[in-house]
Each structure stands twice: as structure tokens, then as C-alpha cells.
Design brief:
Keywords: ATP-binding, Nucleotide-binding. The chain is of the alpha/beta class. It has 2 domains: 106 residues, Beta-Lactamase (2-Layer Sandwich); 217 residues, 3-Layer(aba) Sandwich (Rossmann fold), CATH 3.40.50.300. It has 13 helices and 13 strands. A 7-stranded mixed sheet has the order 9-8-10-11-7-12-13, sandwiched between helices. A 6-stranded antiparallel sheet has the order 3-2-1-6-5-4. β10, α8 and β11 form a beta-alpha-beta unit. α8 crosses α10. The mean pLDDT is 89.
Length: 332
């Protein structure tokens, strides 16, 4: 099988599984192809060293990456059409200590390809309600839990009467109706610089891909306090943990009380027929009202609310999730 045909065959399999990433890793003998799905890592096949080297060289050529450089890290991008589905590929290659090159392909789906399960979710009206007013809405959850899909769908539903602008590092989902900006530190396109530019474009909705440090946290707070709806993500173990994480990043409680419109935690659970998204969330009033158990510390920051457990019970009752799966995710 020629490299182009092998790439297309591998991507067809990965997209059918709705995989987020495809890995080509050197092993003791030859290469292994695996993909990352909602259920974890799945093996897809094997290649000889010669076949893998030809495939990696082909992909790098198509993406205008240096074919001769096999040791240093390289990043690239490629647009392909696979079985009538237009996908954007983000590429990463690097050589190991034995000069064997590995490659990871991140599959960037169009929003219409990934948002169906979110739109059908019974909790969705409540999550959408978090965006009814200006402020910062932050989603948390582990990598691969669908946070970016959720914030894009929230923004998409506001897009009919709003200008949506995203600042990401890097762009995770393609949406032609949004103005999508990508951080490039070497070109001077930092989060802060892009935010200043973005404010001149006067968008109604900001997407800030991920709050990963103090700088991006302050950018998100600044945009929210300026009267915009800001959608972002952060790594935290619960909805309440989002506030703790932002505090760790140096944001004052006063600013959080003024800026946050709501926080949300989500997981993508293996379903009987398709992955199922489960949400837990807290509104501004629930977070900062003195009468709230979340405000005065009666509830642990890692503890799920009743909404989480109710959603798991409903998913079991309607047959979309097996009881043993729901039990495994009781703690989030």
C-alpha cells in the first residue's frame, strides 16, 4: 500500500472511531499505529520501519515540513477530505534517542461533526443558560472530555446575532463563521497582544482556548470585566475547583465575583451506542452567595453536586450508559 493510500485508510478508520489523535510510534521492531478515543488508546495496526519512514516523509512533504530533519521537533498542518468529511490535521514529529522519527496527527473536526451529542444532551438548556449574560464561563474536565466542543457549540448558538472571536493556542475546531486567531509567540502574537487586537474588532463573544497560566487568566478576566461573554477552559477536578484553580493562578476573589457568570465540569463517558457527555455546573449566585454551601466551604472543592449524580442516574435509566460505567464516574 502506497503512503498516500495508507494515510487515507488510517484516517478513515480513526474518523469512524471519532478519534482525536493518531500516533505512529517506533517499537522494538517496526512501528505501531494507535489512536486515542473516548475509551482510551486503541491499536490500529503495525508498519515496517521502511513503510513508516515513507509515510512520515509523505505527510511532511504534503505539509511543507522539512523531510531531511528527522531529529528536531517539527509542527505542521494539513487539510484533507476523507470520505466526504473535511478535516484539518495538526502534525507533530520528533526523533528519539536512536534517531527514529515518531509522528502524532491531531484530527481537528468541523463543529458540525462533533457537536451532535452535545446538542442532544438533556442538560444542555441549563448549560446554555450560563451564557445568558456577559461574564466569564469556564469549563473544566480532563483532556479529551469535550470542553472545546462545548464552548464552540455555546458560541455557535449565540452566533446568529453576535460576532464571535476566538484566541487559541492552537485552534482546536474549525468554524468558518468565527474569526479564529492563533497564538504565535515568535511572531509577537501573544494572548495579551491578540486580546488588544480583538477588542478593536468589538466581538460580542470571546473564546479563549485554555487558561493555563496567570497571563491567560488575567486576559480572560479582563475581557469579561469589559462587558463581553467569555468562554474558556481550565484543568480542574470539579466545577467548584475552577474557582480554586483561578485563585491559584493569582486572580483576586473580588475580580472572580465580578467576572464569573458560571463554571462547569464535564466528562465524556463511554456509552452503549455513542459517547455520552455528563455535566456538573454552578451559577454565579451559587458560587458567591453567602447563603450558598459552596461559598462557605460546606462542600469540598473536589465534590460533585447533586446535578452530576442525577445526570448519571438518568443516563442509566434511559439505557445510554451501563450501570457499571456510571458507578465508575460517581466521583467525577
Amino acid at each position: 500500500m502506497q503512503p498516500a493510500e495508507k494515510l487515507r485508510h488510517t484516517l478513515t478508520q480513526a474518523i469512524a472511531k471519532h478519534a482525536s489523535d493518531v500516533y505512529f510510534f517506533p517499537k522494538f521492531q517496526g512501528y505501531e499505529i494507535v489512536c486515542h478515543t473516548v475509551t482510551g488508546i486503541e491499536k490500529m495496526g503495525e508498519l515496517s520501519c521502511e513503510q513508516a519512514e515513507q509515510l512520515i516523509a509523505y505527510v511532511k512533504y504534503e505539509a511543507n515540513m522539512s523531510i531531511s530533519e528527522r531529529r528536531r521537533p517539527q509542527l505542521g498542518a494539513l487539510h484533507v477530505r476523507v470520505d466526504k468529511v473535511q478535516v484539518h490535521l495538526r502534525l507533530s514529529t520528533v526523533g528519539d534517542f536512536q534517531d527514529r522519527e515518531s509522528m502524532v496527527i491531531r484530527i481537528i473536526y468541523a463543529l458540525a461533526e462533533v457537536s451532535h451529542a452535545v446538542r442532544q444532551n438533556k442538560q444542555w438548556p441549563a448549560i446554555r443558560g450560563l451564557t445568558n449574560s456577559a461574564g466569564l464561563v469556564v469549563l473544566s474536565g480532563p483532556m479529551g472530555s469535550g470542553k472545546t466542543t462545548t464552548i464552540y457549540q455555546l458560541a455557535h448558538e449565540r452566533q446568529t446575532d453576535s460576532v464571535v472571536l476566538s484566541i487559541e493556542d492552537p485552534v482546536e475546531i474549525e468554524e468558518p463563521d468565527f474569526l479564529q486567531l492563533q497564538v504565535n509567540e515568535l511572531a509577537g502574537m501573544t494572548y495579551d497582544a491578540l486580546l488588544k487586537l480583538a477588542l478593536r474588532h468589538r466581538p460580542d463573544v470571546f473564546i479563549i482556548g485554555e487558561i493555563r497560566d496567570e497571563q491567560t487568566a488575567r486576559v480572560a478576566i479582563k475581557a469579561a470585566l469589559s462587558g463581553h461573554l467569555v468562554l474558556s477552559t481550565v484543568h480542574a477536578q470539579s466545577a467548584l475547583g475552577v474557582v480554586g484553580r483561578l485563585t491559584q493562578l493569582g486572580i483576586a476573589k473580588n475580580d472572580l465575583e465580578q467576572a464569573i457568570a458560571g463554571v462547569c465540569y464535564q466528562r465524556l463517558l463511554p456509552g452503549r451506542q455513542q459517547p455520552v457527555t455528563i455535566y456538573d455546573w454552578l451559577t454565579r449566585e451559587e458560587l458567591f452567595s453567602e447563603a450558598s454551601p459552596f461559598f462557605n466551604g460546606q462542600q469540598k472543592k473536589t465534590q460533585m453536586t447533586r446535578r452530576w449524580h442525577d445526570a448519571l442516574r438518568v443516563a442509566v435509566d434511559d439505557g445510554s450508559v451501563a450501570p457499571e460505567v456510571a458507578q465508575r464516574y460517581q466521583a467525577g
